[in-house]
Amino acid sequence: MRPAVVFDLDGTLIDSAPDLHAAANAVLKAEGLAPLTLAQARGFVGNGAPVFVQRMMAARGLPEAPELHARLLARFLEHYEAGVQLTRPYPGAIEALRSLQAAGFRLGLCTNKPFGPTQAVLAHLKLSGLFGTVVGGDSLPRRKPDPAPLHHALAALGADGGAAAFFVGDSEVDAECAHAAGVPFALFTEGYRKSPAESLRPALAFDDYTALVSWLSQPR
């Protein structure tokens, strides 16, 4: 049986920062606040929507008030769920998924993006049928870097009993999750990572999806 391969989404398969940037700035505009730069929005990605909004608030000097955070998060999610028009897959990512699926690999998705926006962008990009399971940032009580979401995805793919499995991501959060779960980590180097690639201790670091397919296809 071919291994299970679980992917992160934002920064790994898709560049969603432009849509996140637009959603954040729509919220800030309604509050009469200055917009974020695209670079700031990229830097806030990785730990889920609540943390993104928390970082957005800090960048604009807003107090850490739970009621304010909840209100801005709700507005952010309204824009975020519909924000798919600016999101693009990374070159070769979709072709790699289709190639792996055709070769018999069991594919899953484990992201800190909320489940609703995840489903919306997968449908928009016609990727929904490629994954045997999808775990969003709000699917479980805990999210990455806790290993629970990755373990959940692997169990859904039938790879929780020591079968070969891999996790593909782009960030420090993904690397920590993979290592905590005891799963080999493949690092896509063109995503939202802030640290040197070697510090994430990947089994593979790649910037071309054909290299990932070749590596995963090697006999083990």
End-to-end separation in angstroms reads 11 Å
What name does CATH use for the topology of the largest domain?
Rossmann fold
> What is the topology, as strand order, of the major beta sheet?
5-4-1-6-7-8
Element order: H for helix, E for strand: EEHHHHEHEHEHEHEEH
Please explain how this structure is put together.
The model has no long low-confidence stretch (mean pLDDT 94). Strands 5-4-1-6-7-8 form a six-stranded parallel beta sheet, with helices on both faces. Strands 2-3 form a two-stranded antiparallel ribbon. Helix content is 44%, strand content 13%. The protein is elongated and about 55 Å long. The chain folds into two domains: 4-15 and 87-216, HAD superfamily/HAD-like (Rossmann fold, 3-Layer(aba) Sandwich); 17-82, Putative phosphatase, domain 2 (DNA polymerase, domain 1), CATH 1.10.150. The chain has 220 residues and is an alpha/beta fold. It is built from nine helices and eight strands. The N and C termini lie close together (11 Å). Helix 1 crosses helix 2, helix 3 crosses helix 4 (66-82) and helix 5 (93-102) packs parallel to helix 9.
